[in-house]
Amino acid sequence: MPSNIAGVTSEVEDLRLDPLDVRDEKFDPEDEYRPEPPPEPMPPVWIDGSLRIGIHTSISGGYVAALESARKLGCNALQIFSASPRMWAGGPSRIPENDAAAFRARREELGLGPLVIHANYLINLAGMQPMLRTRSIQAFQDEVVRGIALGADFLVVHPGARGEAKLDVAIATIVDSVKQAIRRVQMGNLRILIENTAGMGSAVGSRLEELGAILHGLSSVGAGACLDTAHLFAAGYDISTESGLESTIAQIEQNVGLENVYVWHVNDSKIALGGKVDRHEHIGHGKIKAAAFARILRHPKLGASLTTGLPGRAFLLETPIEDPGDDRRNVAKLWNLAGEKGPRVEKGFSMLTAALKRKMAARRKQAAKVAKTIARNSLKKKKG
Fold first, then answer.
1. What is the value of pTM for the model shown?
2. Closest Cα partner for 188 from 149, 142, 220?
3. N- to C-terminal Cα distance for the chain?
């Protein structure tokens, strides 16, 4: 009897599975531990299909002050300069991290977006002179670095002027200048946008074919376009009429691609159709007229709709602020023409105060006086 028990016990022990012995087991992929993939980041709040309207706000009181101005004016998007736009050394090439972090945090609290930075006006990516081109590339790289620090979504830049160079050479130079500027830079979410021009002088990019050629050359870096309504009109694209707008949209689709137009600069024009001069006017007070802007803002292909437009696309004002409240009135006008109620506005707020207007007028008067004195002294020297 004991021997039989011993035999049964031995058989049972042989049937037990050694957890380390899988020689007779087939591998089941479900048995393998697979950690859950990290959740994909949620898209920014401004990419929700809602209409995004903003204005260029001043950083004279600091970067955070520019956000507060946008909020008070009833915007949900904005554009800023990252430094002085008319000086090569318009400020520090880098932004202190404490300042940048405060800006990013406050912007997230306010839900403003997209954030667009407009590059220095002196940058000439098409420039052929070695010194000008070198300074332009360095200045543009500084813009990129500051834009990344601030958490900007888009960086808008003018293509530049070609001088005596042939158009194809100028376009190739623009493409190469951009690529040199962003070489070895981790771009993150920042996207470069090339802006169309009004066509004055030898400026490149007034024709949509030219803009498309530049974007084609920059396809590897994912560059897009910013279209300015006043520039389009001055360049000969009649967006003031319904048929003219449809014709222009067809040309945009053919040469640039509407999916590449992330930002619209919404400006009326003081200049007549095809005048090739860049002069912005208050919405509805220029040659394009209010009805045209209503068509643009409500056009299904041009907006930020999740189904027909480009989510996150923004309409940004660069209209003049000649009197206190001009900025607030232009923002309100866009919301009204779009047929939507914008964010709450701080009553009476304007980036231009009466005191600042007087100060600016005094500065202009003094500058004119100095220029007149210089001209008079120069004339005396010639006569002498």
1. 0.85
2. 149
3. 139
